[in-house]
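2024-03-11 09:14:02 INFO receiving multi-entity request
2024-03-11 09:14:02 INFO entity count = two
2024-03-11 09:14:03 INFO echoing inputs for audit
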Amino acid sequence: MWLKFEARTEPSLLMRYLSPVLAVFLMLICGLVLFSVLGKNPMEGFKVFFLNPVKDTYGMAELLLKATPLMLCAVGLSVGFRANIWNIGAEGQLLIGALAGGWVALHFEHSTSPLLLPAMILAGALGGMLWAAIPAFLRTRFNANEILTSLMLVYIAQLVVSWLVHGPWKDPDGFNFPQTKQFQVHAMLPLLKAGTRLNAAFLVGIGGLVVGWVFMNRSFLGYQMKVAGQAENASRYAGFSAKRTVWFGMLAGGCMAGIAGLAEVAGPIGQLTEHISPGYGFAAMIVAFLGRLNPIGIFFSSLLMALLYLGGEQAQQYLNLPSSISNVFQGMLLFFLLGSDVFVYFRPRFARRNK
Amino acid sequence: MDQSLFTSILFATVVAGTPLIITALGELVTEKSGVLNLGPEGMMSVGAVAAFAVTHHTGNPWLGILAGMVAGMLMSLLFAFMALTLMANQVASGLALSIFGVGLSAFIGKSYESVALPSIVPMRIPLLADIPYIGPALFQQQALVYFSWILIGLVAWFLYKSKVGLILRAVGESPVSAHEIGHPVILIRYLATLFGGAMAGVGGAFLSVFYTPMWVEGMVAGRGWISLALVVFATWRPMRVMIGAYLFGGAMITQMFVQGSGLKLSIPAQFLSSLPYVATIVVLVLISRNLKTIRLNSPASLGQPFLPDA
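2024-03-11 09:21:47 INFO inference complete, emitting structure
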């Protein structure tokens, strides 16, 4: 007997939505195996990793807090991914957004204006867009592959952050730590629930999902980009501009990632440091794929991915495992998802091997 | 410029370029078969940590290199299964491999972070090493440096002079035709992908066992991605990989020499550290702007899945 895949005449809609569920299930099984290989009781590991983080209100608030930058980045990225624009530099765009928004906060350190926060968010969005505009320009003008250029810009952004917090922007009264001054109270996103760290950025995140949904499903440009991704020739024949697709796909990702970066520094962090993001920009790619490049799906997958981050922290604390176990789970999840997707386009068949 | 400075710059450039050459040549062979594997960063990371761990436990760096190679191959096997058997999107699968590999290496490497390996005595080539200026820089190197040179010749010979190499290129140019005249497209792509993984593993091993020699999370620091750019820079020609690799190698060591030279430059260290990444972007732009060069040289089926009997 030999397993063969037969192409379906059209992609299976059912499998399209079942495949993420299958992927999560496979990841959980592998997680249990991983815990036992590491000499931990798998049930205990499961409990610490997946249940402990959300057992109380504070935990739930942390989950939503962590999910916010993920859903923002992911919804922006999925606009590009739908059109086959591979912006993998959201992490860098997030950092530059944080810098731009942070600059506004530091520059107007005595402002009490209610416009300060909106200005910071705007600056964050612009910063992210600026960083995303570089690969967009290089791709449309010089045909340079956006995958590599956007990724290289992540490293450059990290070095820019490092330079600023070690040098010109360092807090003079900060005992030489590489960080800026704390943002003043008017430059901080208001908390949604006292006693937790959940702030208004979560509402911005939900807003981002709604805007993304409307754009993708109700706008002509969103439709053009979908066509460009699924049938390039048809798109060219219809006269849709390929350059505009690239520009818009990149800028949407940069804008959302920039806002996500600002939300981190004007939220849980409260200043600029070298450690603004634990790889949200990369994890957001997994969130986008797992959510099927669809804002509703992204909402749920960002919660799951946030849980993986929190689980990693718990595993470090209670199981004495490195917190990078989160990344292992995230990577596994993406693999299982891509693997499960074979059933969307192909039908498995057991057949006798002929010839 | 005095002799010792020239020699040490050349020496350091060659060392910095070596993992790039090895990894990029592996990726080049993979891409020539029509498979775009964006996972070198992940494969190098896992190769680096595996090599480090095995060298640490056995005390034998060659076993370490072997472990790195095997680890890289296992990683690429995962990719090959996704992209070739399950026909998943190659770009997404490659990204997954990189994300997974970097995470996995950080996870495995945590317990090795404070461990140092003994440095390994380089292999001196008699006579050649006595040439003034260049001798000590080029012929008093680690064995893997010589391996990287041999590899260039081997890959060039394999691709352009051997029969299997011809078939591999045919598979990359037109899998349908290659399949029709009876060549096993998927098998060849599997093998090419595994070779890419093996070489990325060795490239990573060179970093952790010879270059640093220690394990730090994120130590591959984009070299896998730079290797990908190198293949484009080299327009898929093995010889040109070497030129590009030393160019990037030079960009990587600038910081070290500017700081060591005592020159009072008011350039922040971060600016110099960003040079290799900036150089990668510049080089990509210069090469890619000529659409014809890219179209003529890149394997025609690069990144396209192939379904036999379809």
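2024-03-11 09:21:48 INFO post-check: The radius of gyration of chain A is 22 Å.
2024-03-11 09:21:48 INFO post-check: Chain A touches chain B at residues 5, 7, 86, 88, 138, 141-145, 147-149, 151-153, 155-156, 159-160, 162-163, 166-167, 282, 285-286, 289, 322, 324-328, 330-332, 334-335, 338-339, 341-342, 345-346 (CB under 8 Å).
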